[in-house]
Amino acid sequence: MIYLDYNATAPVKPAVVSAVVEAMTRHGNPSSVHRFGRIARRYVEEARASVAAFVGVKPTQVIFTGSGTEANNTVFTSGTLSTFYTSAIEHDSVLAASPMGQRLPVTRDGTLDLNALECALKSAQAQCLLSIMMVNNETGIIQPLQEAVRIAKTYGHYVHSDAIQAAGRLPLDFEDLGVDYLTLSAHKIGGPQGVGALIIRENVPVSSLLKGGGQELNRRAGTENVPGIIGFGCAARLAADDLRSVPSLKKMRDKLQTRLQDIAGTDAVVIGEHSPRVANTLSIAMHHVSSETQVMALDLAGVALSSGSACSSGKVKSSHVLRAMGYTDDIAGCALRISLGWNTQPSDIDFCIEAWRSLYERTRKNLSSKAA
Amino acid sequence: MFNVVGLNEFAGVANSELHCWLCQKPVSTRALFCHHCGTIQPVRDIDHFARLGMDRRIDIDMELLEHQYAALSRTLDPQRFLIRGIGERGHATKQLEALTESYEILREPLRRGRYWLALNEKEFEKDIETQPYIKELRHDLETAREPSHCDRVAQKAGQAMEQGIMGLMQALRGQNWQLANTALIELDGLESILGDVRSVRARLTAPKF
Q1: What is the ipTM of this complex?
Q2: Cβ–Cβ under 8 Å, residues A219 and A34
Q3: Which domains does chain B have, with CATH numbers?
Q4: Which class for A125: exposed (0-12), middle (13-18), buried (19 or more C-beta within 10 A)?
Q5: Which domains does chain A possess?
Q6: Mutation test of the interface with chain B: which of A241, A340, A348, choosing the one with the most B Cβ atoms within 10 A?
Q7: What is the pTM assigned to this prediction?
Q8: Euclidean distance between CA atoms B32 and A168, whole angstroms
Q9: Which of B1, B2, B3 is best to mutate for the A interface (most A CBs within 10 A)?
Q10: Mean pLDDT to the nearest integer, A48-62
Q11: Catalytic residue list of A
């Protein structure tokens, strides 16, 4: 079975597995003052330093959470701000956390409409929070975050960015981005599931989503997931190798894209083909074949990929991202997301191409016989 | 099941002859860390582009280069390996040195141009006659009697350098190796003049006793 769904979750790196397993053989609550607790605390702080170095901040700016979703929700419930702006293509965890938020449109190329952003923020009555993802999870399109930050800061607003899909694919520098909040998740960079982080600028408002103890400097209640955090720290260190792998991934992704276009011609529509994209993601629609059918057929053929965000309880539905880009259901309902990662081999790409070719030829034959 | 870890050409195990110095499991030539035990690896013989995770091309994205260098050097900061023992700390220091050297070569167009020629196995011929304008600048410098003469030479040499670098990049992009070679030699000459301007100027402005 070939795994090409890294944007949903990446296989855990073996060194991370070892670190997590070792952590699970020890016990100790990092809040305890005895030796067991102190050892656990030391490992948590070492992991915090690794995550901090990963994005270029001080360790005190890193708050560990139970997921990227929790980190995103924490941002929207912190402070007294009640006016939110997000792009229309954000992840569900951002859209659901800001139900009254104003959705900013994206252009046909899948990037945030900066003119619309400027108009919206200029007319905002009070200080507000802008949330723009760094890389879209379905299309891999890189958003003009720095320009958005510049506009938002001109009008004195806070900025949050969900950088989960950017981690390990683009070099991240919190200061350089200029945001106030940044969300990360361990399992997209070969770490364990169930652990995320919220990176904050010093002195911005932040309060715990959950009520309870004073962990994470009163910013996230609940005993720390020590093995998960240790795994996150390990994955953050190893992500340096992912950054060095970008040219190789790009070569494989580009080969995949070119070959699928060669096979299907105009029946294959590459989403964001001419937009800035991360190297690991290909979003491609096969005309007249629903995403659901493609995902299932390719799964049977031995290729695991998805139709878009994997966070919808396995539901296969028309993508809100593609609809926001102006695609109608005949494309949005036929799109696949193919995402590569640290363990993708060139032979995986060849296998995927052949499986896709076989599916395409079968469906063409069926359509022709129906038409006849 | 997933494949055996990292049999791809990039981060994991590409070269079965290479092994992690600590756990002895196979590692890729390009890996900074062993993906089995997480230990930092010794510096391997890879090209400067690969070391920084950049596309191998003469026109590099300078902003990306800066960001890649910043991100990778943060990970390799030897301070972060203090509790990991002398072996890992030593490898981190060496890796950071190698990364910095690669960064400096790629950052400077002249050094990058020289490296690009070497990477493409083009011989760097030195026996090319010096261009008349360089001879003229050299003569002007040698006969300079006032600091302002030196400044004029420096200004002309600086402008020629700028144009020369543009010409060099154009030649390299077009794979015109002979032209690139000539441009490099001219740039070497200009660089040497700019270096000498400083000493001549210092001599002319030194107090006379």
Answers
A1: 0.90
A2: no
A3: 48-107 (1.10.287.110), 132-205 (1.20.1280.20)
A4: exposed
A5: 2-8+245-364 (3.90.1150.10), 14-242 (3.40.640.10)
A6: A241
A7: 0.89
A8: 14
A9: B3
A10: 97
A11: 311
